[in-house]
């Protein structure tokens, strides 16, 4: 009988103990720790492009602006730069910086899946020339950076204003319809700076102008292209 009372008493104490653990909120899986709720900061790469055409006297002839598309290949390259520092498997020009602004006169819009090494062409991969649409020219620029703050992301600016695209009788080949950012230059150019061989590079982003509002240039004109990329 005493042995039975002892067993009953132990069972009662064990039951009370379990109830206390349950009420206290302690889990049997004590090694599992949940993270405190946090506000997720958005991360994206947004671009804005401005075009300014000056005549030979320096007067503004035309001004256009619009947003861009960061293509799939560009996103892949950026991720490789940040986390691997080796882009040979994704970027055609390796881990070169995206510091080259290209302009072209092709009229078909590009899409976010493009991983092209040049602006769109209809000439079998050749550069633009009289009567043929494609990439017209490409310039390297030195980017400027504005660090991120609590309310804004990092701002990167690529601007050809100090060394614009210049046009003469030999290279004013139709309306300018596209601009893009690449990580390499054309393979070769003529004396006017016009593309004569595309070469190998990777596209980061592209911006297509409306077919009704393309940029028309004449001999003596200059074109400045300014890209502003916001990261985050």
Structure description:
With 232 residues, the chain is of the alpha+beta class. The chain has helices at 2-24, 72-83, and strands spanning 45-54, 60-67, 69-70, 100-104, 135-140, 144-146, 154-159, 165-166, 178-182, 188-189, 195-197, 203-208, 222-231. Strands 1, 2, 6, 7, 8 and 13 form a six-stranded antiparallel β-sheet that branches. A five-stranded antiparallel β-sheet has the order 3-12-9-4-5. Strands 10-11 form a two-stranded antiparallel ribbon.
Annotation, overall tally of beta strands: 13
Shape assignment? globular
Helical amount among residues, as a percent range?
A: 10-25%
What is the rounded distance between the termini?
A: 75 Å
What features would you highlight for this structure?
six-stranded antiparallel β-sheet; 2 helices; 232 residues; globular; alpha+beta; five-stranded antiparallel β-sheet
Short description:
With 232 residues, this protein is an alpha+beta fold.
Layout of secondary structure:
Blueprint: H1 2-24, E1 45-54, E2 60-67, E3 69-70, H2 72-83, E4 100-104, E5 135-140, E6 144-146, E7 154-159, E8 165-166, E9 178-182, E10 188-189, E11 195-197, E12 203-208, E13 222-231
């Amino acid at each position: 009988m005493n042995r039975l009372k002892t067993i009953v008493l132990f069972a009662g104490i064990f039951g009370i103990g379990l109830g206390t653990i349950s009420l206290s909120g302690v889990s049997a899986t004590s090694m599992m720790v949940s993270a405190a709720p946090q506000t997720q900061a958005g991360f994206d790469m947004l671009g804005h492009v401005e075009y300014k055409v000056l005549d030979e006297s320096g007067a503004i002839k035309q001004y256009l602006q619009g947003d861009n598309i960061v293509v799939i290949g560009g996103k892949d390259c950026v991720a490789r730069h940040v986390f691997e520092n080796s882009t040979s498997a994704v970027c055609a020009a390796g881990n070169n910086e995206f510091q080259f602004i290209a302009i072209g006169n092709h009229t078909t819009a590009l899409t976010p899946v493009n991983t092209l090494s040049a602006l769109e062409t209809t000439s079998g991969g050749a550069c633009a020339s009289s009567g043929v649409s494609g990439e017209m020219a490409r310039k390297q620029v030195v980017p400027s950076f504005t660090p991120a703050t609590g309310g804004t992301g990092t701002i990167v600016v690529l601007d050809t204003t100090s060394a614009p695209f210049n046009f003469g009788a030999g290279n004013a080949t139709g309306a300018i319809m596209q601009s893009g950012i690449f990580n390499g230059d054309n393979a070769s150019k003529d004396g006017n700076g016009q593309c004569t061989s595309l070469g190998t590079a990777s596209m980061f982003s592209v911006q297509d102008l409306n077919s009704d509002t393309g940029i028309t240039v004449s001999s003596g004109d200059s074109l400045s292209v300014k890209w502003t990329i916001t990261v985050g």
